[in-house]
Amino acid sequence: MARAPGSGRLLVNFLWITFARNLYEDGSGLAFDDAGDPTAYFWVHLALAVTSFVLGTAVGVIGLRGVRAHAGK
User: CA dist 23 to 12, 46, 50, 53, 69, Å?
Assistant: First the structure.
């Protein structure tokens, strides 16, 4: 059974959004200090999630454009 183009990328982007939301709601004390301010752990992991989401979306768009161009031939 064939998958829709970009469906895997959509799943990965969904996972990164969920990761960022869970990071923001972290209650373990890693993401925020006692005063409620974000820690380095929070900023590094947020940067990883955002970077992966943006790059993944760009790769997905490029791939979708390639599939459409190839189908039009």
Answer: 16, 8, 12, 15, 39
Q: How far apart are CA 1 and CA 64, in angstroms?
A: 19
Closest listed residue to residue 25, CA positions, set 14, 9, 40, 36: 36
Q: pTM (2 decimals)? A: 0.73
Total Cβ atoms within 10 A of residue 26: 15
pLDDT tens column, 41-51: 999 999 999 99
Give the per-residue pLDDT at 44: 96
* Amino acid (1-letter code) at residue 10: L
